[in-house]
Design goal:
7 helices; 4 strands; 4-stranded antiparallel sheet; about 240 residues; flat; alpha+beta; about 5% strand; single chain
């Protein structure tokens, strides 16, 4: 995430897809018509709820989203334990020293902060573009407002513009116009056979090729015959008699 050239805003590709799967959970095994209908109505309800939520935030005069503000408050608490060293007279470059390890993932470190270039060594800002604790303590040291570093994507008005669109209601089938296009039918040859094990559709490679090993007898462990026709069985029975 820190070295990705694209802007994912803290979301990896798999996380976004899993979020969509959580909304559409339980509809994967439905027929195609019911699947499209369930997807349409679930997304319509989701957009209505999120749109109402962010519209209320705008009415209260909130500028940034709640998740963004909570993240900023957490970073402000971490910044209280940092020490700052100013390295230029223009208040651009700083060296931030951590005195307390905020997490157990990495040891206590020393990070360079350049406010003019919007670059700091921890890489957190490059990943989600939210000021980390090192940037906050550097801005507080020079009495600068660190909120100006937040991009517009975290503002409530921009999030509301995403969810302000409404899904139109689908009328009863009696009001639908007559369809005059092509009629599609399923291919019966593509139907899965109910009995037996289904055929594998996986593309096989050289790793799937197995060398044929001659089968051995379960009694004498020799090749050329099976346990049922093992000649050693008659030999052992004659000795017993």
């Amino acid at each position: 995430m820190a070295y990705s050239q694209g802007r994912r805003w803290g979301h990896m590709t798999t996380n976004v897809s899993e979020s969509i799967n959580a909304v559409l959970k339980g509809t994967r095994n439905l027929p195609i018509t019911a699947l499209v209908q369930s997807t349409y109505y679930r997304l319509g309800v989701l957009y209505a709820e999120r749109g109402q939520q962010h519209q209320a935030s705008l009415a209260y005069g909130r500028v940034y989203t709640d998740d963004c503000i909570d993240n900023i408050k957490c970073e402000v608490g971490k910044s209280n334990t940092h020490q700052v060293m100013q390295l230029d007279r223009n208040h651009y470059s700083f060296m931030v020293h951590e005195t307390i390890n905020p997490t157990k993932v990495r040891p206590i470190g020393h990070f360079k902060v350049n406010i003019q270039r919007k670059w700091w060594d921890c890489g957190k800002f490059q990943a989600i573009l939210v000021p980390c604790s090192h940037v906050i303590v550097a801005c507080s040291y020079t009495r600068q407002n660190y909120l100006v570093l937040l991009p517009d994507v975290y503002k409530v008005v921009n999030v509301f513009n995403i969810y302000k669109e409404e899904f139109p209601l689908i009328p009863n089938e009696g009001y639908w116009s007559t369809y005059e296009g092509e009629t599609l039918y399923h291919n019966p040859q593509m139907r899965r056979i109910k009995k037996g094990r289904p055929n594998s559709t996986r593309i096989r490679t050289e790793m799937d090729v197995k060398e044929k090993v001659p089968r051995k007898c379960g009694l004498c462990r020799l090749t050329g015959h099976t346990r049922k026709h093992c000649p050693n069985v008659t030999a052992s029975s004659s000795q017993l008699s």
